[in-house]
Design a protein that fits this description.
Distance between the termini of chain B: 44 Å
Radius of gyration of chain B: 17 Å
CATH topology of chain B: Glutaredoxin
Helix content of chain A: 25-40%
Mean pLDDT of chain A: 93
Strand order of the largest sheet of chain B: 2-1-3-4-5
Order of helices and strands of chain B: HEHHEEEHE
CATH superfamily of the largest domain in chain A: NADH-ubiquinone oxidoreductase 51kDa subunit
CATH class of the largest domain in chain A: Alpha Beta
Low-confidence stretches of chain B: none
Number of helices of chain B: 4
Mean pLDDT of chain B: 84
Radius of gyration of chain A: 27 Å
Strand content of chain B: 15-25%
CATH architecture of the largest domain in chain A: 3-Layer(aba) Sandwich
Helix content of chain B: 40-55%
Oligomer: heterodimer
Distance between the termini of chain A: 73 Å
Number of strands of chain A: 20
Strand order of the largest sheet of chain A: 9-10-8-7-11
Largest sheet of chain A: 5 strands, mixed
Structural class of chain B: alpha+beta
Number of domains of chain A: 5
Number of helices of chain A: 24
CATH class of chain B: Alpha Beta
CATH topology of the largest domain in chain A: Rossmann fold
Number of strands of chain B: 5
Structural class of chain A: alpha/beta
CATH superfamily of chain B: Glutaredoxin
Chain lengths: ~600, ~130
């Protein structure tokens, strides 16, 4: 008696993990045990579902019911109602923000309708800590296929034909990279997985490693077979403890099953993987800096050529690919290059994973076909702008990218179109900004990041970015002149042209693209000393409206610097000299008597 | 753990493991499978819906039929419980009433495998607002 009728998938990604998903999972297991339902219900910890906005997520199979924001106290109700009585717990279902209706299951959620999941195929579906679930879903079949049926050349040909391009940002054709590394003769070669994800607001690679680590290991082995390497290295930042832990478990299991190590599947092919930890320097995402960091040297880039494919780790030919790139490989081998090449646009094939962040309703992780428009991503999948505010811009490509604006909403997203629009694909971070974001302040924010992360090796980046930052600081404080805008543009161009590595060459992009798209906003800062978004503190004043103020003294009592004066029942006044513009008065005022000018 | 020595071994292993995630695979694409929904509200459970659901699951696995069995709330035909709604790929759902364990085999033999109708059909007296 009793066959498993229910699978309860509990998200174990970092986001949901932080909101107690592991305790929720344990609680479900205890409750199921108490009721003797072990043979009917199975609880599975999975990787990220992508819908991080509403975590922790619990998904019920077979009916695909998608429970959001599940708390420990909800577990019993879910079990009693859903499993035992067959009724959905309506209050935990996702609520469509437009209609206000509860959506019965994930199949009917706008968030998932337009997604095609290739790299994320197993995230939120299998238990990442159980190799058997990966094997059940065609895991290591692609490796078996290339080792027994295909030559390295034939495999590389498939990769080239598929049109897969590097997902770390550069977009270099993956098959070609493998071919170049293969062509170099050497006694030892290496393949490296670049998991040094450093863009603010990006978490694609982390989620893949947390949700499906075996797909990366399998692809690295395939890469090793193609390029002639027997050693793989994963360079991962130490700030990703969960991803590191899952990766370690995966490596251990793969070795136990003979899928890593000596003589894999009896073919004589040897391959094993080691982990190298990064300390979280942004520049180490650049492949030469990454290699130096792995060698124990300073994480500083060096001039290319020589390319890593000729002289990389310890001077040996090294092939570096990004996590998401790897996650695509087994599927391409299993389903064929033609299948993959059918998805996407002319020059950008397949899908891309994006991390949606900022002022968007559905913060989370999505995978969409190349060629989808920004409008579809933001308004359909992303659920629109938070609090019904006006969309202003989206930053793609992190601190190296640029801003896309309303005019770009209907541009199909692919490598080339984004560059033409003055931004770049980057690794896939998408930070959405609304009318309350100041574009000068945003550019300053990204510059602050690059100034901190610049390794300091070459002067255009080390000194130039600092000067850019100072100029932006000057403008946001209301001391800018129209000449500063020209200087900004010129210096940006010089930094782009003369920096050694990708970090410096792309660091002025946020400045240039905000100058191009929001020049009038810069002009307002410079000429009118005004910030229309109300973000630049030096340019705004908190003013008390005498008509509304009843003299309750609440603002004066809450002002941390005693800048507000006024007698009881008399109109109050803010001393602009003393005011630090913290906004506490406006927040406290019950009579809407304080406004920003 | 014994190491996997050949690709054939890996494939064999996959075949055996598939059952573990079969329920999830099928549920991810319910429209391509036979779907059986068992009404399992108080009235249904009292009339034996749990056993009926159990029987469907057992029979399908015994006969190797790809199907998704889910429970659902009260369908409103409390007089005819246990009731089940069967949807074959590409066809409209049909609801059968007065289903007991014995009738499960009959439903599978006749309707699911041979498209012959079985007694106890509850005529459609509602419109679904959402056809997948």
């Amino acid at each position: 008696m009793g066959k498993i009728k229910y699978h309860m998938l509990v998200c174990g990604g970092t986001g949901c993990h932080a909101s107690q998903s592991d305790q929720i999972l344990k609680k479900f297991e205890t409750l199921i045990h108490d009721r003797g339902l072990e043979n009917e219900v199975q609880v599975i910890k999975t990787g990220c579902f992508g819908f991080c906005e509403k975590g922790p997520i619990v998904k019920m199979m077979p009916d695909n019911t998608f429970y959001t924001k599940v708390k420990l106290d909800d577990c019993e109700e879910i079990l009693e109602e859903h499993i035992i009585k067959g009724r959905k717990v309506t209050r935990l279902l996702y609520e469509n923000p437009e209609t206000g209706e509860h959506v019965s299951d994930s199949k009917h959620m706008e968030f998932y309708k337009k997604q095609i999941r290739i790299a994320l195929r197993n995230c939120g579906f299998i238990n990442p800590e159980n190799i058997e679930e990966y094997i059940a879903r065609d895991g290591y079949q692609a490796l078996g296929k290339v080792l027994t049926e295909l030559s390295p050349e034939a495999t590389i040909e498939i990769m080239k034909k598929s049109g897969l391009r590097g997902r770390g940002g550069g977009g270099f054709p993956t098959g070609l990279k493998w071919e170049i590394t293969r062509a170099v003769k050497s006694d030892q070669k290496y393949v490296v997985c670049n998991a040094d994800e450093g863009d603010p607001g990006a978490f694609m690679d982390r989620s893949v490693l947390e949700g499906d680590p075996h797909s990366v290991l399998e692809a690295m082995a395939i890469n090793g077979y193609c390029t002639g390497a027997d050693k793989g290295l994963v360079y991962i930042r130490a700030e990703y403890p969960l991803a590191v832990e899952r990766l370690k478990i995966a490596m251990k299991q793969a070795r136990e099953y003979g899928l890593l190590g000596k003589n894999i599947l009896g073919t004589g092919f040897n391959f094993d993987v080691e982990i190298r930890y990064g300390a979280g320097a942004f520049v180490c995402g650049e492949e030469t800096a990454l290699i130096h960091s792995m060698e124990g040297l300073r994480g500083e880039p060096t001039v290319k050529p020589p390319f890593p494919s000729e002289s990389g780790y310890l001077g040996k030919p090294t092939n570096v690919n990004n996590v998401e790139t790897y996650a695509n490989v087994p599927v391409i081998i299993n389903k064929g290059a033609d299948w993959f090449a059918k998805i996407g646009t002319e020059r950008s094939k397949g899908t891309k994973v994006f991390a949606l962040a900022g002022k968007i309703n559905n913060v989370g992780l999505i995978e969409v076909p190349m060629g989808i428009t920004l409008r579809e991503v933001i308004y359909e999948i992303g659920g629109g702008i938070k609090n019904d505010k006006e969309f202003k811009a989206v930053q793609t490509g992190g601190p190296s990218g640029g801003m896309l604006t309303v005019k770009d909403l209907d541009t199909p997203i692919d490598y080339d179109n984004l560059i033409a629009a003055g931004s770049m694909m980057g690794s896939g971070g998408m930070i959405v900004m609304d009318e309350n974001d100041c574009m000068v302040a945003m550019a300053k924010f990204y510059l602050q990041f690059t100034v901190e992360e610049s390794c300091g090796k070459c002067s255009p980046c080390r000194i130039g970015n600092k000067r850019l930052y100072e100029m932006l600081e000057k403008i946001t404080q209301g001391n800018g002149t129209p000449e500063d805008l020209d200087k900004l543009r010129n210096l940006s161009q010089v930094i782009k042209d003369t920096s050694l590595c990708g970090l410096g060459q792309s660091s002025p992009n946020p400045v240039l693209s905000s100058l191009n798209n929001f020049y009038d906003e810069y002009m307002e800062h410079v000429n009118l000393k005004k910030c229309r978004a109300g973000k630049c503190k030096s340019l705004m004043q908190y003013i008390i409206n005498a008509e509304n103020c009843i003299g309750c003294t609440l603002c004066a009592r809450n002002c941390p610097v005693n800048a507000i004066t006024g007698e009881r029942k008399q109109v109050h006044l803010i001393d602009q000299e003393k005011c630090i513009k913290c906004g506490a008065c406006m927040e406290k005022c019950k009579f809407n008597a304080i406004y920003i000018k | 753990m014994e190491k996997i020595k050949t690709l054939a071994d890996l494939k064999k292993m996959q075949e055996n493991l598939r059952a573990k995630i079969d329920l999830r695979e099928k549920s991810a694409q319910p429209e391509t499978h036979i779907q059986v929904k068992v009404a399992m509200a108080t009235c249904g459970i009292a009339s034996g819906a749990k056993e009926v659901m159990e029987a469907f699951v057992e029979e399908f696995s015994k006969r190797n039929i790809d199907a998704v069995v889910t429970q659902t709330g009260c369908m409103g035909y409390c007089y005819a419980e246990p009731t089940v709604e069967i949807t074959k790929p590409g066809q409209d759902p049909i609801t059968f009433g007065y289903v007991d364990v014995k009738k499960v085999s009959k439903l599978i033999d006749k309707y699911i495998l041979n498209n012959e109708l079985v007694d106890g059909i509850i005529p459609v007296n509602y419109q679904s607002i959402d056809k997948h």
